[in-house]
């Protein structure tokens, strides 16, 4: 639509100007020839005209992206060095989130200010910067108050994310675009990951023969898949900071209480019942504090344990 409007405006300014594409040519092949030709010129400047689909809505988004720059260079015109460092810390926690949740609570995002080197920033300043990240489309904040990567980040920082987090970076099995919200096959060691809208296409195409995993062929009858993204997080699951190649860091008791309160508040806003025994959880946290490990009993109460090291999520 934007391309067609530009053509119309150009024609009004100079009717004699020869245009390489006419409206019927652009519509006929969906603009593929136009994109291919323009990218041949953009490649000289390490740029690419690229598209991606919004994971939540399925809407197609277009942008001119830099194929060489990393996250720091991408954000350099909008943020200072400390703010960029903070952005990268938040992105790291999002990418390393347990159980392929690809999201973190606000308390975890604010806790990252303690990892900043140099000047640093206050938590109040961090809240302001986080709001700016959301407003400018780099990250998104859900109704539950959790931060995840926005479509802009997945599109413009795709190369950075793939190179920096090769073990955590997941591609949709059907459309081959980055996926941080969708479904995954339950079969052990199966790498199938699909966006919700791609999964819906697979289900519709299967019809009476039954839905099967496009990778391993296992039955997906009765939605026999597990969620990835925020839906993979239980209401009372607390976030533990993870560093690449290292074990989980036990959260401080006050951090757990803040996350618990945050989850309860979000649940009441969405009419969700989060049945958590706070006194039991606090006493359990006190018992763990300083030991660095969780007992088997505590793991069974909190849900299945997750691997602590980077790269162990998928094989």
From TrEMBL:
It comes from the Eukaryota. Residues 246-276 have a biased composition (Acidic residues). Pfam families: SMC_Nse1, zf-RING-like. One of its GO terms (molecular function) is ubiquitin protein ligase activity. Its EC number is 2.3.2.27. The keyword DNA repair applies. Residues 227-315 are annotated as: Disordered. This is Non-structural maintenance of chromosomes element 1 homolog. InterPro entries: Nse1, Nse1_RING_C4HC3-type, WH-like_DNA-bd_sf, Znf_RING/FYVE/PHD. The keyword Amino-acid biosynthesis does not apply. It comes from Rhizoctonia solani 123E. Acts in a DNA repair pathway for removal of UV-induced DNA damage that is distinct from classical nucleotide excision repair and in repair of ionizing radiation damage. Functions in homologous recombination repair of DNA double strand breaks and in recovery of stalled replication forks. It is an enzyme of class 2 (transferase).
């Amino acid at each position: 639509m934007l391309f067609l409007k530009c053509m119309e405006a150009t024609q009004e300014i100079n009717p004699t100007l020869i245009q390489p594409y006419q409206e019927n040519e652009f519509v006929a092949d969906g603009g593929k020839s136009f994109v291919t030709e323009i990218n041949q010129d953009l490649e000289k400047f390490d740029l690419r005209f690229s598209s991606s689909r919004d994971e939540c809505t399925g809407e197609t988004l277009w942008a001119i992206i830099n194929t060489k720059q990393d996250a720091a260079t991408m954000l350099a015109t909008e943020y200072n060095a400390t703010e960029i460092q903070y952005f990268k810390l938040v992105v790291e926690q999002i990418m390393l989130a347990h159980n392929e949740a690809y999201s973190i609570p606000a308390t975890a995002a604010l806790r990252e200010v303690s990892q900043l080197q140099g000047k640093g920033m206050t938590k109040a300043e961090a809240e302001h910067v986080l709001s700016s990240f959301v407003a400018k489309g780099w990250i998104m904040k859900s109704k539950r108050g959790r931060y995840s990567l926005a479509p802009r980040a997945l599109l413009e920082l795709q190369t950075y994310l793939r190179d920096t987090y090769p073990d955590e970076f997941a591609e949709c099995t059907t459309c081959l675009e980055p996926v941080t919200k969708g479904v995954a096959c339950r079969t052990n060691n199966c790498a199938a990951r699909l966006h919700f809208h791609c999964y819906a296409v697979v289900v519709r195409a299967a019809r009476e023969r039954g839905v099967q995993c496009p990778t391993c062929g296992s039955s997906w009858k009765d939605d026999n898949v597990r969620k990835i993204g925020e839906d993979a997080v239980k209401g009372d699951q607390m976030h533990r900071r993870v560093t690449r190649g290292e074990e989980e860091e036990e959260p401080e008791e006050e951090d757990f209480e803040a996350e618990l309160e945050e989850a309860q508040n979000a649940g009441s806003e969405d009419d969700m019942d989060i049945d958590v025994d706070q006194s039991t959880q606090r006493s359990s946290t006190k018992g763990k504090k300083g030991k660095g490990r969780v007992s088997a009993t505590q793991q069974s109460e909190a849900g299945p344990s997750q691997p602590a090291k980077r790269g162990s999520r998928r094989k």
